[in-house]
Amino acid sequence: MNIAFDAKRAFKNRTGLGNYSRSLVEALHQYYPQHQYLLYTPLLQGPSLFDQAFDMPRVKVIQSPGKLLSSFWRSFRIPYTLPKKDIQVYHGLSAELPAGNTPKGVKYVVTIHDLIFLRFPELYPALDRKIYWFKTKSACDKADLIIAISEQTKRDLVQYMKIPAQKIRVIYQTCNEIFEQSVPPEQLRAVAAKYKLPQRFLLSVGTIETRKNVLLIVKALKQLPADVALVLVGKKTDYSTEVEAYIREHDLQHRVKVLSDVGFADLPAIYQLATIFVYPSIFEGFGIPIVEAIKCRVPVIAATGSCLEEAGGPDSLYVHPSDDAALAAHIAHLWTREDKRQEQIVKALKYAERFTAAHFAGHTMQVYQELV
Description:
The chain is of the alpha/beta class. It has two domains: about 1-175 and about 355-370, 3-Layer(aba) Sandwich (Rossmann fold), CATH 3.40.50; about 175-355, Glycogen Phosphorylase B (Rossmann fold, 3-Layer(aba) Sandwich). It contains 15 helices and 13 strands. The protein has helices at about 10, 15-30, 70-80, 115-120, 125-140, 150-160, 185-195, 215-220, 240-250, 265-275, 290-295, 310, 325-335, 340-350, 355-370, and strands spanning about 1-5, 35-40, 60-65, 90, 105-110, 145-150, 170, 200-205, 230-235, 255-260, 275-280, 300-305, 315-320. The protein has a seven-stranded parallel β-sheet with strand order 3-2-1-4-5-6-7, with helices on both faces. α8 links the parallel β8 (about 200-205) and β9. The protein starts with a strand and ends with a helix.
């Protein structure tokens, strides 16, 4: 088959949508090299986040003819090129498909990551909500099949957008294989020194925004012994001001470290240096940092209420996203019990065997084959 992708996020997005796009293309290229993969992206200027795509023998990168026309090109011009290149499947990797009629002989697939803009509209400007609704609903209606990244997202598509359940396939993604590799001791020491990390610490990874709910961890920290430290890794937002104010008010500055400039190559070491990973997000489409933590052999405490149980499995620990006392109790339970941490890690690793590149590629290829 010739399979094409709307790959803008693969080249330009550092976080969830970009990671999903890059890992899928890499997995398909590795496990199904008999097919040709075409990546459509707006014009790239200088290095991108997916330069390795140019070195994959079965991948071809197709860029827009100019920067100013890139949005028009993605929406209106790409469809005309698909039959000429004998494309059988076009996959929108981030809740978007081109405007206009579907080209003859081409099947459309779209991946929907979440509908957080509908569940928590107060977190989004009104105009953004309208744009997200239009793009997502249009893509779902136009797609021949929809990939949801979790059962939670599938339920939301059925509930909020009235998409028929039989049109949706749930396919779990994987994390980058770098998180499955043990970091050498000398590199662990170097990373610990580079970022001045505590000897033992709680870790949370993700943009420091309202939805990620890291203030809950700080509130739990206040209830824990003084030797428990916290490291937050993620880009700051306005919500960071609220978190930092609470830290100062309760004199926790010496116990909390915020790192907003961590290189991706250092992230596995930081995970593997952590004692416990805490992810109390109010809502997620999936929760890939939980999988990263488990692959790095770190026990997880996450929040109930969305799909985080799907990522962490039945043997990770969970709390209500507003219950700081319960979170403190779970942390205290694991902090001093190496045996309990190891027991949880072994069980979680077994559960996480479903989150592999082979499964990710294989189940996605089944969707393509089902259509073609």
